[in-house]
Amino acid sequence: AYPQDADGVYTLGTGAAPFDQSFYLLLSLAVGSNAGGGSTFPQVLEIDAVRVYECANAIDPVAGTGCSTGTGVPAVVAPGEPYTDMLAVYTDAPATVTFVDPADPGNPVSSALVPDTATSNGTVTVNSNIAAADGANTVWNVDINATSGVGSVFMRAPDLSPSTGFFNLSGSETAGELLFRMRVTSALPGTVVEVGLDSTAGNGRQAIPVTADSTWRQYSVKVNDLVTNSALRGTSLDLASVLNLFTVEASTGAITFDLDDIEVVVACRDTGACETSGRISTPVVTTIYGPQDFENIDIMSDVIGDGWSFFINVFDDVAGYLFGYPGAAPNGPQISAIAADQGGPNQGAQQLSIYSDYDCCAGGGPGGSPSGHQSATGLVETNVFQEPRGVGATSISADDVGDTWTFTFDAKRGNIEGSSQALAFFKVLNPSTGFSQTAFVTAEMTNTPVDWTPYSLQITIGEWTGQLLQFGFQTNARNFEGSGIFYDNIEVTSTPGP
């Protein structure tokens, strides 16, 4: 494939094209500097003759297929006729793309591309309307005000949760291009407009000229230029893992424009490494904890073990905080215990029972008076939990940010009654601010049925590097009211973020 000029659209060179017509062959020669750094210049380059040879054993001398000689040299194979592979992006509406998982090609997923926007700071505004009327056509209308930053619009893969959608443009570096029509209705002088692709490893951008005269113009942005510019910026555009299929970015100004007939076109000869397609990547699920069915926990042990801890918070009768105390989760008689013979079809012989600390507390109240259950009116909050990276350890790392953690378990109603409450939770605490609570995601367990029921709880890790993440169960009870819930088959997994 070849363009008629530097900015032109690629043309398929079938047969001997474009060399099946008169053309000039330019020979460029130069005298370079000598490696030793000596003063040997000026010099004269003298040319005796220039000869052009044709292979005697070429498969097709006219087509220029080449030749090979010598022992062990592979036979020359004539290349197949070129063809184009195309992935539509937008024509009157976001295109619908078929996404295929190479590990499960028999179950493709078809879904429309999703328009999205991004800004570099709060002063940048981007308005995107993918259904703007333009006579008989429907165009993508965009308004970007980025006088002090960068604003962009892009088409990305849809949310294919729990899988990740992306685009494979393998082979497009040689003869791939982004084709689109664009009409600029207004633009501040000095506004920079760039078009490109975004991948998991980096992005590529190419500046395009714009004229605010409300005239439709055809543009061709070469994938090769995007790859080259990405490297110059110190990133690496991964064409086999493209996230945003088409991006328009504006900076140092403001611009309003319309887009239509957007597509990615690749000229190919080899079907084995040249394509434009949607792909699905099934994320690798990492087990953080479990699965724990408590069958191997010693029912005669003094503690639950396996990293389970507790923390009790005690409040007075008007919810005023009094004090708290920690410890290893006990195997009875208070707080937690391994229960026997409470299982159903999917539970074994042993389960985890969580309930209040009814021994709380002989003191701690005003003037050293009893508190908690012992005061009849105080509230005891009992937390039995795991810190999956170790008790007291820093459990959230930079690698966790953006990942989704899923907490699954089975639950069955115990003797909970009256005003007692129960819940399951993910909790994030910040050690640098006195263990203040950053996040608290819960699932209500107070009214869980008497039959075993599966539950699932999720949290997406934010910018919480260095903070503690806990998961577990909580009860809130007073005046010796029942608070027990049974739990089993506990597991926590992590799924990578986009």
Strand content: over 45%
How many helices does DSSP assign? 2
Number of strands: 27
Largest sheet: 9 strands, antiparallel
How confident is the prediction overall: mean pLDDT? 86
What is the end-to-end distance?
Answer: 35 Å
Poorly predicted runs of 5 or more residues: none
- How are helices and strands ordered from N to C? EEEEEEEEEHEEEEHEEEEEEEEEEEEEE
Helical proportion, percent range: under 10%
Number of domains: 3
Radius of gyration: 34 Å
Shape: elongated
So what's the CATH class of the largest domain?
A: Mainly Beta
CATH fold name of the largest domain, please?
Jelly Rolls
The CATH superfamily of the largest domain is known as Galactose-binding domain-like
Class computed from helices, strands and strand pairing: mainly beta
Q: What CATH architecture of the largest domain do you see?
A: Sandwich
Keywords summarizing the entry:
Jelly Rolls; six-stranded antiparallel β-sheet; mainly beta; 3 domains; nine-stranded antiparallel β-sheet; about 500 residues; 2 helices
Tell me what the structure shows:
- The structure is a single chain.
- This protein starts with a strand and ends with a strand.
- Strand 23 (421-430) and strand 24 form a beta hairpin.
- Strands 3, 6, 7, 8, 10, 11, 12, 13 and 14 form a nine-stranded antiparallel beta sheet that branches.
- The protein has three domains: 1-79, no CATH class; 83-282, Galactose-binding lectin (Jelly Rolls, Sandwich), CATH 2.60.120; 287-495, Sandwich (Jelly Rolls).
- By secondary structure, the protein is mainly β.
- It has helices at residues 172-175, 223-232, and strands spanning 2-3, 10-11, 83-90, 96-101, 104-112, 114-119, 125-134, 137-156, 164-168, 176-187, 192-199, 203-207, 216-222, 242-268, 277-281, 286-292, 309-315, 321-328, 336-340, 350-354, 379-386, 404-413, 421-430, 436-444, 453-460, 468-478, 485-495.
